[in-house]
Structures are given as C-alpha cells and as structure tokens.
Give the backbone structure.
Amino acid sequence: MKKILFLADHYRRRQSRNVKFLYGLFSPIFIDHDIILDTVSNNYEHINEARWIDSLSGKGESMLQAYQPDNDTVALGFEINPIDIAFLNEKKIPWVNIEIHPIRFLEDLYFSVSSSFPFDFNSLSCNKKHIQLSANLLKLKNMEKNQEIEDNALLIIGQTPADKSVYFDGEFKSLLDYISTLEELCEQHDTIYYRPHPIETNQQVDEEIIRRLHAKTLPDISYYELLSSDAIQTVCGISSSSLYEAPFFGKKAVFLEKRIKKFSHPISLISLLNSNKLWFEKLLAFKNEDFPSDVFRVPENTCRDIFGYWSYTTHFDDMDKKIQDIYDITTLTQAKADEAHSALSS
C-alpha cells in the first residue's frame, strides 16, 4: 500500500502549521484511493537554529531517518530542507516540493513546484499574459495615488535578517554587504527610496542604509502602490520576491546577489489539485488505472488566507480602510462639536 508523507522544514520554528496547511489543501486528492496519509510532526527536539543554519549548506543528518520510509513511501513537502531532499534522493523516495511563488499579486498566491522526477510543470502554470493583465489591473487601481513620489527614483528593498533567501557563503547577507553596488545605482537616479521589511528587519542596517545613501522612506505607501508609480524606475534588493514582480510593472529589477534561487513558473492551487498525472501517474507511479476527472474549485484568496497576505491587499481590505477613515473623521468631528458645545455652555 502506498504511503504519502506530508512534511516541511522541521529544523525551523512554526513548521507544524505548514504541514497542516499542506495536508488540508492536498489530502482530498487521495481520499477515494487506498493510500495511507501521514504527517511528519514538528518535534521540538529537531528545532535548532544552529542546526538549521548548517542544513542550508547541506550539513547534518536528516530527521527523516527516524521514520524509516520504505519503497512504497513518497513525500509531499512544503519548503523541504536540503538535507531531507538529499536523504529522500539517497533512499530513492519520490518527492514533490511546494513553495510560495515570489509573484504574489495574482488572484491568489501561486506556487513554485519541483520534483524528484521529470515533469512538465509549465503545462500547469499560468501564462505571462495572465500575469501582465493582473499587474496592469493593479496599476490602474493605483493610477491616481502617490503623485508625490519624485521622478527617476530608485527603490531599495529590505529583507529579513535571518532568512535562507539571503544565506550565501556561510552567512546571512545584508544590504551593507553590497554597499558599493548600491552606491553606483544611487548615482544613476535622482531620488532614493528605501523600504524596510514590514515584519522583520535589522534597525541598524536600516539606519545605515538611510544615512549612507540619503534614502527616504515611505512607510504609509504599499509596495504595489510604489510599483504602480511611473516615478519609480528601478527596484533593487538582495533576492527579494519583490524583484521578481517589478518587471511586470515596467521597472528594472536589480538583484544584488547573482546566485538567486530559481523558481518554476507560477502554478495555481486549482491546477495542482486537478493534475491526476502529477499525483497518480508520476508521484505514486500507479499503472494502468483510470482516475476520475475530479474538478476542484476553491474560493479566491484561499492560499492568502492560509499562508499570509504580505504587502497585497484585497478590495475588502480597501473597504475596511475606507470605513475606518470615515469612522475616524466622524469621531474627530464629534469631538470638535462636543468641544464647541462646552465652550458655548461656559
């Protein structure tokens, strides 16, 4: 009997939730078949920052050894760790690895997908025309906003201090490691804007970038509003997902680090759910069986609701902001009216 292991990068914190997300999204594909579905638990004994950092260079032993997977086991993972990939390959265990795609402004989050076996993932991906249309719609939505952004501007993107996307040469890089390139870029632009990472950032690096490059910050403007401005000419960063998006908004994207990660074309959740060829013929290697042509349907923003929104906002978020603005104005007006009434009464 075939067995599917659902797993994530278990040397990091908060990865059990990603396994639950993965299981919740993809387990329905297999419920009508004689397949065992199992999840690899995020045991705290495996969570270790030093071990995780070593694993980024392929060092250390895989915790999957404890599961003793056999020849009938396959793996479906979310951001599988390099040492676990090496273990699965050594044991000849087929795997599919799913990551959030860096292009995040489509109708929902899309995925980048890789596998241990040959598969044409382009056949599942959306085309560039769809991506360009989505970018154009965002530009039209933000067309009348942020006219105060100065022309011929460079936008520098900050990233989280300790993330695998900035791990090179055995260390986590910061923008200061590329300061000479940044200074050259600044000389080619009239205005420099800096956008620190909205969730995790290194304040010392932020302050130094602003000081050395005479950069301005725009904390109240969303990233996609900035991209929609014709005044922004170039977007640069170490390896930020924002750089993959910028060309669709007509911006030059400069990756300060040339050894950036390669992603597949963006693939939607619906395309993955409906690909019996990927799951049954390739991953599970089932032979000569007819599988029903299931048609899954999922609500818009399903993956965003699960994995996060980052800088993206929906029309519901915009509506909430307008309601809050109206409430703030109403509250202020009432306070002034009460103040005026008190003054007249006295």
